[in-house]
Amino acid sequence: xxLSPAHKSxxxxxxxxxxxxxxxLFVFLIDRALAIYLNKTDYFTAMTADSFHIxxxxxxxxxFRISSQGLRNRNVVMPKPKGTYRIxxxxxxxxxxxxxSEEEKWTTLLEKKYQETGQKVEIIxxxxxxxxxxxxxxxxxxxxxxxxxxxxxxxxxxxxxLDQLAAIEANKNQLTKFLEKTFPTLIRLRQPLIGPLFEQNxxxxxxxxxxxxxxxxxxxxxxxxxxxxxxxxxAVKMDLLEGKINANLVAIAAAxxxxxxxxxxxxxxxxxxxxxxxxxxxxxxxCAYNNPLYFLMIPSMETVSKDYFPGRSGxxxxxxxxxxxxDLDGLLKTPVTETGFIYLSLLPDFRSDGCPNCYYLWDSHLxxxxxxxxxxxxYRELPKKF
Length: 386
Known about the structure:
With 386 residues, this protein is of the alpha/beta class. Helices cover 48% and strands 12% of the residues.
C-alpha cells in the first residue's frame, strides 16, 4: 500500500525523533559508565596534585603542599586498614584550613581527639577554597568510593554558600542545566580539576602564590571601581595594594556593598531556600551511606560579634546590627534535616561569648583559635565512638 506524502513525512519525523532519543540514551549510559570508572581513579581531583600553596598576608603567612591525591591532606592509604573508620570532610576554605597550618586545621584536631581514645578514625580533608555545594558534590563523587568512606561532614559557610547557589543558578541557561543534569561526567571531562579558582586561573603550574594573584586582581578591581579606595580603611590600604589582603573580598564590596545585608531580605532567602533543597538532595544522593551524614553550619564573623564589624566596613561593606540576631539556623535546619542530614550549628556556641580571636579581622577566615572551637564543638556533638 502506498503511503501518502503526509504519512511519509510523519514516519520520517518519528524515525528521526526515535534516533535522537536513542542517541541521548546511549550517551547517557556512556556518561554513567565513565562516572563509575573515573571516580575510582585519580582523574578528578579537588586541587592540583603535588602543588604548593603559599600565603603571605597581613595577618598570617603559611605554606603547604597538596597531596598526590589532590587534597590538603596526607596521602590516604589504600586499601583501607582493617578496623578504620573514615570520615570525608567536604566544604570550602573554612574546611580546607585557610590561614592555618596542617596541625591547626579542625579536621586534624578532631581526628587527633578520636585517635587519643584509641580509635582508628581518619578524617580526610577535601575542602576546596571558594566553592559551593556543587563542588562538595563533585568531591564526594571523586573520593567516596576511592577511599572507602564511611560517613561525611559537610562544612557549610552560612550565608555565602547560600548566595553562591543563587548566583550560579542565575548564570545558567536551560541548555546548560539540561546538559549538567543529563551528562554530568562528560561535561566535567574538559576540567578534571574541581577547584579552586586561584589554581585554575594561575599561570604557575605547581607553585601557587595566592598573594601574587591578589596583587594582580586588585589592580583590575580598582580600574573598574576606582571609588572603592575611598571606602578602604587607611590602615590596610597599602596592604591591599601589595596583595596582603584578599582581593576577592574587596571585589564583592565594590560591586555590592550590601552583600551581607542581603541575608536580611526574606524574599531573597525564600528563593535561595528552594535552590538549597534541590542541592541538598543532590548532595545526599552523591554522598549517601548507611551511616549518618553530618551538616555543619559555620557562621561568618559579622553574624557572631560586633567586634568583627570593622573587618567588613573597613573593606567597603555596609553592616547592620541585625546581623547579630539573624536566625540562620531557622532557615537551614528544616531543609537539612528533611533531606536526611544531621544538623549541627556553631552559631549558638560562637555567639555565646562572641568567639574572641576566632576570626582574622581582615581576612575573615578562622584562626587557630577558631579551628580549636570547631573541633571541640564537633567532638561534643558527634558520637564518642564510631
